[in-house]
């Protein structure tokens, strides 16, 4: 059975984050697996295949050769890349020609000087940003070329450097395998060529699905050609307890897959030696309206059946006898020959590496609907941290808008580095909206329509964030109000944490002090505070939560909240004496995933959303995950920890064996002691070095200049510095191979 998934889309639906993965686009077909980079974005999955041509490869300038041929060698065969492009919804490849007295396509009438060779060794005379049959560059289509007489910047033949670049998006022509440069034989002619990796998005096969509405409905396809080997895989989802998935008959030979009961899937066939049946029994019901995967294989030696990750059932073929499966009838998916057909959804049905187009056939078949709904029942659990699962026609996505996280599964902390004196204010009501509407919408999860603006009071708050700093004292977070009420999270001069509530009714604010833990050690710390009426629960890092209670005289309503501050409090009116003292010079360090009830102020500042108008920032806010809680950073390498490897099968010395010999045990203890001593010395050194250099640490990020206008990080990098993508690519390879 297949060890690798068929596509990046399949890895995303195992909850995997962006990384290098092995995919096998045709299952156990002839192509074999290939390693690609899967980039899981919020709503799309990109598959990237790299090649070895350096960005900005120079051609010409030295010799006077007539043609210069640049060959691109990919990390996959052309057939493997074709399998990816043909099942993708969209593909693109960046191509760029920088020129100095070197023409590119010249005039639409003449033969081009330069061309590229794509799939099936065809020559193509259009350039990035243009399309098949249009012998122009991007500027020729947008009509903004250097010389309006020509359709490419380079065709102006200037002595200064010019550039024609853009995306090739006609996927039937991709990938680029060669670039042939022709106009180099004059003195002073020079050119540089860059070609990006092939990037494809979506997997039409993975979501090709049909819903069987009645138990007599079926789809039919041409006879299955699987005489000596059959490899069938699909996903199903049902609430019915039995039904036939598919069947193909011969005179006496047949092949059939069915759901026999709520916990049994059966694979049966006859190649002339009498019927054989393999059954996989599941400990849990399979009719739970979740997606389940079935993989059935048969060859001359053996047959096997696997359901989900349950153990593979294998049956050896008899040594003598018939081996050819001879079928004549059509292949029926669903009810066949009066049997009870399958009720529910089948998707991604592949027979010997070819995906059957269930969707097209279902459009013209009564009792069967194209597509499938209800993906969130299976995949909703991957949307973490309060992210909401959103149904899509082909799959699902996670809506992270009500959380302080982003990324495809809402697990990426959104955080920032604060320089000394920097601060952020989030106003709970924005100019121009009535306070009542806004506050009830954002602060009260259960909005009570009767509340009017000045009377808005909170009986409960939920606050969570993580931070790291090496300086105390400071104000981490402060919530002000139109009354004397406030709430604050402070780091005291001693380096310990304090939560301070002032809700009225008490002479002094109510303080929760966590004195026995140092918070200014430069490590990320997480803080969760939940108040419901008088009860406050505080959880710090991974320690167990502790409960506190406001004094009996204290008011339990936070009256008229006004704004939330991070880094420093800049508020008019009387301010608490301690907070005033701690306020200068201000917080230096990192804050991450700040969330107060439904509000995520840092995210509103760093990600343009409809809440961004509520944010005011003093200083430059630099996005950084330096305050990210260590628990949410995914493990680095998939190469060392592929998802399908069982850790128990890894080769550990003495795995499960007692060290019997006394000498061995003693040497192991001595070795352990030495290791601990060395480790302690190293830690001390690291601590000393950090201490010596701690005041010198400043943070700089070299954001790509084109980032604002670019659609993606890749595009920004490409716009900015074509050499940069190559360096990223190389370093990734080194890390992950």
TrEMBL record:
Entry keyword annotation includes Lyase: no
Topology of this chain in the membrane: Single-pass type I membrane protein
Lineage top rank: taxon: Eukaryota
Domain EGF-like: 373-411
Pfam annotation, one family: Laminin_G_2
GO cellular component: membrane
Annotated SMART domains: 4.1m, LamG
Laminin G domain mapped to chain residues: 208-372, 440-626
GO BP, sorted A to Z: cell adhesion
UniProt subcellular location: Membrane
Disulfide bridges in this chain: 345-372
The Fibrinogen C-terminal domain, residue ranges: 1-51
Statement: the UniProt record of this protein carries the keyword Disulfide bond: yes
Membrane-spanning intervals of the chain: 668-689
CDD domains: EGF_CA, LamG
Record's keyword terms, sorted: Cell adhesion, Disulfide bond, EGF-like domain, Glycoprotein, Membrane, Repeat, Signal, Transmembrane, Transmembrane helix
Matches recorded under PANTHER family: CONTACTIN-ASSOCIATED PROTEIN-LIKE 2 (PTHR15036:SF33), PIKACHURIN-LIKE PROTEIN (PTHR15036)
Family to which the UniProt record says this protein belongs: Belongs to the neurexin family.
Official protein name in the record: CNTP2 protein
Gene coding for it: Cntnap2_1
């Amino acid at each position: 059975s297949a060890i690798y998934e068929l596509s990046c889309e399949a890895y995303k639906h195992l909850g995997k984050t962006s990384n290098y993965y092995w995919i096998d686009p045709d299952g156990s077909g002839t192509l074999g697996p290939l390693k690609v980079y899967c980039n899981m974005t919020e709503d799309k999955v990109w598959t990237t295949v790299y090649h070895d041509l350096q960005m900005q490869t120079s051609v010409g300038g030295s010799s006077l050769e007539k043609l210069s041929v640049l060959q691109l060698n990919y990390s996959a065969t052309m057939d493997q890349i074709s399998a990816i492009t043909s099942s993708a919804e969209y593909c693109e490849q960046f191509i760029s020609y920088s020129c100095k007295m070197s023409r590119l396509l010249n005039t639409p009438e003449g033969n081009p000087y330069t061309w590229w060779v794509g799939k099936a060794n065809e020559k193509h005379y259009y350039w990035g940003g243009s399309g098949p049959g249009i012998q122009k560059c991007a500027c020729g289509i947008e009509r903004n070329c250097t010389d309006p007489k020509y359709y490419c910047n380079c065709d102006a033949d200037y002595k200064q450097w010019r550039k024609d670049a853009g995306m090739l998006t006609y996927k039937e022509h991709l990938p680029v395998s060669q670039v042939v440069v022709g106009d180099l034989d004059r003195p002073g002619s020079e050119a540089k060529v860059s070609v990006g990796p092939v990037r494809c998005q979506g997997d039409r096969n993975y979501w090709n699905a049909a819903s069987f509405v009645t138990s007599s409905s079926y789809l039919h396809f041409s006879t299955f050609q699987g005489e000596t080997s059959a490899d069938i895989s699909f996903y199903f989802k049902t609430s019915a307890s039995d039904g036939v998935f598919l069947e193909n008959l011969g005179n006496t030979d047949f092949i059939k897959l069915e759901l026999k009961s709520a916990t049994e899937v059966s694979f049966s066939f006859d190649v002339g030696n009498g019927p054989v049946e393999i059954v996989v029994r599941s400990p849990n019901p399979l009719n739970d309206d979740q997606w389940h995967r079935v993989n059935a294989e048969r060859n001359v030696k053996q047959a096997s059946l696997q359901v989900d990750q349950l153990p593979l059932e294998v049956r050896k073929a008899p040594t003598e006898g018939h081996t050819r499966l001879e079928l004549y009838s059509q292949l029926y998916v669903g009810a066949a020959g009066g049997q009870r057909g399958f009720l529910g959804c089948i998707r991604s049905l592949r027979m010997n590496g070819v995906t059957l187009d269930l969707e097209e056939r279902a459009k013209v078949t009564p009792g069967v609907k194209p597509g499938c709904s209800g993906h969130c029942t299976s995949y909703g659990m991957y949307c973490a941290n309060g992210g909401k699962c959103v149904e899509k026609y082909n799959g699902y996505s996670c809506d992270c808008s009500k959380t302080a996280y982003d990324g495809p599964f809402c697990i990426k902390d959104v955080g920032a580095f604060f320089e000394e004196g920097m601060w952020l204010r989030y106003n709970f009501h924005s100019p121009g909206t009535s306070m009542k509407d806004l506050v009830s919408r954002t602060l009260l999860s259960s909005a009570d329509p009767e509340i009017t603006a000045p009377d808005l009071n909170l009986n409960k708050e939920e606050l969570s964030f993580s931070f790291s700093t090496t300086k105390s004292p400071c104000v981490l977070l402060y919530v002000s109000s139109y009354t004397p009420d406030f709430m604050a999270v402070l780091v005291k001069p001693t380096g310990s944490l304090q939560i301070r509530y002032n809700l009225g009714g008490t002479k002094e604010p109510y303080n929760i002090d966590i004195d026995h833990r140092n918070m200014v050690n430069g490590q990320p710390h997480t803080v969760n505070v939940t108040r419901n009426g008088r009860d406050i629960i505080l959880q710090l890092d991974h320690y167990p939560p502790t409960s506190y209670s406001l004094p009996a005289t204290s008011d339990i309503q936070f009256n008229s909240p006004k704004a939330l501050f991070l880094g420093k409090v800049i508020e008019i009116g009387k301010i608490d004496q301690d907070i005033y003292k701690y306020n200068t010079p201000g917080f230096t360090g990192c804050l991450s995933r700040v969330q107060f009830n439904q509000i995520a102020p840092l995210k509103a500042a760093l990600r343009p959303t409809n809440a961004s108008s509520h944010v005011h920032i003093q200083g430059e806010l630099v996005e950084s995950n330096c305050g990210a809680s260590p628990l949410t950073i995914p493990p680095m390498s998939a190469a060392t920890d592929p998802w399908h490897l069982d850790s128990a099968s890894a080769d550990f010395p003495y795995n499960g064996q007692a060290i019997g010999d006394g000498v061995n045990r003693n040497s192991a203890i001595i070795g352990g002691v030495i290791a601990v001593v060395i480790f302690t010395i190293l830690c001390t050194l690291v601590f000393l070095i950090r201490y010596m250099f701690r005041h010198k640490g400043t943070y700089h990020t070299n954001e790509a200049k084109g980032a604002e206008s670019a659609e993606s990080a890749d595009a920004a990098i490409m716009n900015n510095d074509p050499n940069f993508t190559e360096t990223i690519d190389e370093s990734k390879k080194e890390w992950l191979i």
